[in-house]
TrEMBL record, chain A:
SMART domains: EFh
InterPro entries, sorted: EF-hand-dom_pair, EF_hand_dom
Highest taxon listed in the record's lineage: Eukaryota
Keywords: Repeat
GO molecular function, one term: calcium ion binding
Keyword check for DNA repair: no
Protein name: EF-hand calcium binding domain 2
Gene3D superfamilies in the cross-refs: EF-hand
GO cellular component: sperm principal piece
PROSITE patterns for this protein: EF_HAND_2
Domain EF-hand: start-end pairs: 11-46, 89-124
TrEMBL record, chain B:
Cofactor(s) listed: Mg(2+); Mn(2+)
Molecular function GO terms recorded: calcium ion binding; iron ion binding; manganese ion binding; protein serine/threonine phosphatase activity
Polar residues composition-biased segments: 335-347
Organism in which the protein naturally occurs: Bubo bubo
Chain spans, region Disordered: 334-361
UniProt xrefs under SMART domains: EFh, PP2Ac
Catalytic EC class: hydrolase
Domain (EF-hand): residue spans on this chain: 499-534, 582-617, 622-657
Catalysed reaction equations from the record: O-phospho-L-seryl-[protein] + H2O = L-seryl-[protein] + phosphate; O-phospho-L-threonyl-[protein] + H2O = L-threonyl-[protein] + phosphate
Top-level taxon in the UniProt lineage: Eukaryota
Gene Ontology terms: biological process: detection of stimulus involved in sensory perception
Pfam families cross-referenced by the UniProt entry: EF-hand_7, Metallophos, PPP5
Name of this chain's protein: Serine/threonine-protein phosphatase with EF-hands
Sorted UniProt keywords: Calcium, Hydrolase, Magnesium, Manganese, Metal-binding, Protein phosphatase, Repeat
Amino acid sequence: MFLFADGAVAEIEKKIIEAFEVFDHECNKTVDVREIGSIVRSLGCFPTEAELHELLAKVEEEEPTGYINLEKFLPVMTKVLLDRSYQPIPEDVLLHAFEALDENKCGYITKEELVKYLTEEGEPFTQEEMEDMLSTALDPETNTVRYRDYISMMIVDET
Amino acid sequence: MGCNSSVAYRRSEKAIRAAILIQNWYRFTKARLETRRRYSLSIFQSIEYADEQDQLQLANFFTFMLDHCTHPDSVSHILTSPGVSQVVDEGLSLTEFENRIDVPDSYYGPRLSFPLTVEDANALLHAFRNEQLLHARYVLQLLCETRRVLKEMPNITHLSTSYSKEITVCGDLHGNLDDLLLIFYKNGLPSEQNPYVFNGDFVDRGKNSMEILIILFAFLLIYPNDLHLNRGNHEDYIMNLRYGFTKEVSKKYKDHGKLILCLLRDVFSWLPLATIIDSKVLILHGGISDTTDLDFLNALERSKLKSLMRPPKSVRDRQDQLKERIPTTRLSKHIANQNVAGKTQHISSSGSTESSGSNLPPDPALKEWKQILDILWSDPRSQNGCTPNKSRGGGCYFGPDVTAKLFERYNLKMLIRSHEFKPEGYEISHDGKVITIFSASNYYEEGSNRGAYIKLNPELIPRFVQYQVSKYTRRQNLQERVGTIESSALKSLREKIYAHRSELTSAFAQYDLNSTGRISVSDWAAAMESVLQLELPWRMLRAQLVQMTPNGEADYMSCFYDLKIGQPTKEVQPALVETLCRYRRDLEIIFNIIDKDHSGLISLEEFGQTWKLFASHLGIDLYDESLDKLVLSIDYNKDGHIDFNEFLEAFHVVHRLEKKANS
């Protein structure tokens, strides 16, 4: 059990409130429930969809209204950050994941293969998500995804 | 066999885990992109609104200069030079312009003949697609005719959707000609079968405000019953001075620009204030307040109010009377002082009525001014009530209860308004009763937002059509678009940081009692917000704005590293440089006014005088000496004149790592 100085907790809370307000158009301390994923991720967390659903269950109203209140969200999210839940995915782990889908170890995955895995397995992509990833990741001449290049490009843009 | 299937099973399990990981990571990057996009738009919007508030300083300065004119020659000419006012006051006929202004044979642009026909409109559209200019004579004739037609119209236009017509409603265009052309392409040109309402803010910011006006006015003359215009808060000559329209006209029409601008001032004041469809749908530019009185609005003389930035003369006179009676504190304060005091100036009438006391009778001019100010400047909010619009400095925030009351009073069903940027081009609020429609796509930056228009059918059900103009032949992907918007937003923000360097430095120092050069992120964020007065997610932006020490503190002076002005001017006080940066745009406007003949040059004496006046108005203390040095260093060829565009360009803030601007 770690004891956190009050200052640290206050700072974490301020961070959360800031992130929340970015998505709070009306400035009335509520956000659309569909934005919660973006807010949690913007705070540096990598929840799976399943984990997000769990979190939502804790912050939704008794009768879901489609909106989430800051009041309920703040304590739950504070705990998430203090517990360091939903750890980030390091670059090398991401690389291994792509390599796992690259059966022949040739450094690329064909469009068909990638689409099959990502839209049928795991927590499937929607068509929109798949198309969006392909728009950046796909090399149109070979119709393949050279994943090392893709990862490097995405990581650089992050900074 | 068993072995193979278990291997296959394991591989598949591994693949599933890999898929989940990749999906998770991808969704994270998407969310980050979305967050960056949102805060970039937030930065643009906050800076824009803060700028609009600063606008008030300039309006006051004009009042100050015009009423206490020490250089009658240099300033008052904008309102009183003889030839110009003659045109404005007398109804000059079309032939007068024909006689006075020659159109050379070498001019290949459209030659309008009045009354205008569809052929003229098509010629104009064709010319503007090819970036041609309409000759000044035709512009003046067009404006004259437009004024004549607008004068006949009431303050509030009443339309009906009879004959099964759909009415198209468009919002802010702000000089984006491409958007107007795209709307006409998608939705057809205005005609008896295809009526349009354009809801104000046709001009400023974009580079084709003049062309948009010409097209809209031409169609107004051709189809006066089917093309309707409402006045926006930017149809106002003082706004135009700051937000680019005046500059655009002066540049495009060097000889007749002033005449055109003067006539426009009149035309703008004759634009109707609102449109009502089938007595149920109210269309106006900004919004409403809890005192909005449509009957009163319909009855007043709208053309008396040329600009909403200056209260009517009777109100100003009364304010002056009061000032004489009560010992005054400074007329205006330095912006930093204002912020520290927690007050922001507000151009609503509440300030004036407060100080008036009970002995003076209510001023009808004041009521007129407030009523129009409210409908052109207000914004809807989800909280109930009606409060002063503090981000804009004019009009109010109105809640669903205010809307409901107005609807009940006038038996209305819907309010369509514009005035606010919306990423999707439109937004519905107040439980479906209020629609915001914004038609300028890529308003802040390429890729920042879509534009939209409304198709209103005879049952008054709205249908929205969205679009986005793109200058790239290949559509940028989301990553690239967000990158572009973010760079642009950060550039604006850094400029503000640079321009407030001294104040920021002292604010930081207040947290750094031992002068270590480091403060906590929390303190850094608090200082940034209080000095810049921008509500932004500072902790999210921190990485782009300030460097961190190994122990997680902010090395606050690093905010200013890599920021410099375009051209270093030696031997000039940093404080002076900073001030010039901050007021660069205001100075540009003032210089353009003084520069009567649009030569781009003003005399050293004029520059010095103007600067002194402006500085004293803002409460800035500057030693004469440093200004003289600065001025001398700018007078490159020592002929007693300054090229002020070059001068101002020197105070443009750049960041070392920025790519060259491609505008």
